Amino acid sequence: MDRAKRRKVTKICFLLYLGVVGSVGYLLWNIHDAGMLPQQYELAALCLMISLLLFEGMFFLKSRMHREKGKRIGSGVMALLLGIALFGGSAYASLMLDKTQDVLRAFAGKDSKATQDFDKPFIMYLSGSDTRSKTLQKSRSDVNILMVMNPTTNKIFLLNTPRDYYIPNAAGGGAMDKLTHCGLYGIENSMKSLGNFYGVPVKHYGQINFTGFERLIDALGGITVDSPSDFTTYKSNIHFTKGINQCNGKQALAYARERHAFATGDNARGEHQMEVITAMVKKASNNKLSVIANYGSLLNSLDGTFVTDFSDGDLSALIKTFLNGAGKWKIERYAVTGTGGKATSFSAPNSYAYVTYPDTNSVNEAKAKLTKHMTVEETED
Q1: How far is it, in rounded angstroms, from Cα 42 to Cα 116?
Q2: 284 lies in a domain?
Q3: What is the mean pLDDT of each run of 10 residues along the chain (381 residues)?
Q4: What's the total number of domains in the chain?
Q5: Between the CA of residue 162 and those of 122, 166, 236, 286, what are the distances in Å?
Q6: N or C, which end of the chain is more exposed by having fewer CB within 10 Å?
Q7: In this structure, are 129 and 87 located in the same domain?
Q8: How far is it, in rounded angstroms, from Cα 71 to Cα 63?
Q9: Does 73 lie in the same domain as 173?
Q10: Are residues 128 and 70 in the same domain?
């Protein structure tokens, strides 16, 4: 190869080397900006990357300066392979960091977009929409759970209210209605109606439909449920054995929705729904790093099927609060009960429909538990 061609190849190789240096530098800056590593680990990562870049530079120089052709080729191949590994690895890592930067910045205390204080107990309304569309639509609420998250005690309280519960509908000025019908007037109306019924401040909500639920479970890698009995679901014909069952998204949805196989009907379904949420909490808490690394893909799996009143910054801060307590959360579940009957409702004033009349004792017990779990310094019974 003549001297002019060698100079040209050298320039191209040098530009490629600069590209690798730039890619690595960009990754190191992202790591520093996200604050995901302690200072000593940042320094260690910097030293490692510089060492690798120096090795690549050494191989690059040998490939251009060594007198023996065989050694020049060998050094060139080593420089190329190391360069590809460094460039590809740092580019991929930067992409993953970009997808998870909201959570990482929240962990570093740099997320200025968060407006909520998640160091104090709060109540969130969890709603399941009975639709299967790829985009969430206003509809009846099939799942109605109030979740109290208390970071000071590392406790989560789940309260299930049956979908047919006969309560005052906020949209009707307090006229009696089935809880599930409150969702026809918007999720905010369901949240307000439940808050009024239990006399507690419910300020946040999250709603997901069947499609989003299945996607979320699959994105988490499935969950484990402990079935109290052998049963086969009515519509989907999925069988569950007594004891531990591994579930993907479709199976978890069937487990959470089934009521026909149980004598207690809707009460059993409500218990299963809370069990599924508990299993999701445990799965995420036991896989903290995986949740952070796959934060972007988890959110993408919910695209169009999940709504919440939290901003992106608040959602990141909420996930930070949850993951900070990973492995420590204790979960308590409770479901209010009642008796079946028929009545007219605000949403259907001219016809009688099945309703569940609230049991006063169980409602009062639920109110006491909500108050207890909302206390910053919760006292033990």
Answers
A1: 30
A2: yes
A3: 66 75 75 60 73 74 68 73 78 64 52 72 89 60 91 92 96 96 92 96 90 88 92 91 95 91 86 92 79 68 81 79 77 94 95 96 97 74 48
A4: 2
A5: 22, 9, 22, 30
A6: C
A7: no
A8: 7
A9: no
A10: no
Is 109 among the domain residues?
no
258 within a domain of the structure (yes/no): yes
Give the CA angle between residues 277, 283, 284 to the nearest 5°: 90
Residue 190 in contact with residue 125, Cβ under 8 Å?
yes
Distance, in Å, from the CA atom of 378 to the CA atom of 10, rounded to the nearest integer, reads 69
Residue range(s) defining the domain that contains residue 37: 3-99
Closest CA to 356 of 369, 345, 368: 345
pLDDT of residue 107: 47
Burial (Cβ within 10 Å: 0-12, 13-18, ≥19) of residue 80: middle
In a domain, 114, yes or no: no
Q: Nearest-5° angle of CA 45, CA 28, CA 94?
A: 115
Q: Which segments of the chain does DSSP mark as H helices, in order?
A: 3-34, 39-65, 69-99, 101-107, 179-182, 187-198, 210-219, 249-257, 266-285, 288-293, 295-301, 312-324, 360-373
Distances, alpha carbon 274 to alpha carbons 92, 147, 161, 268, in Å: 37, 10, 11, 10
The DSSP code sequence of 327-340 is TT-EEEEEE--EEE
Q: Are residues 60 and 131 in the same domain?
A: no
Show the tokens assigned to 215.
């996607």
* Same domain assignment for residues 147 and 95: no
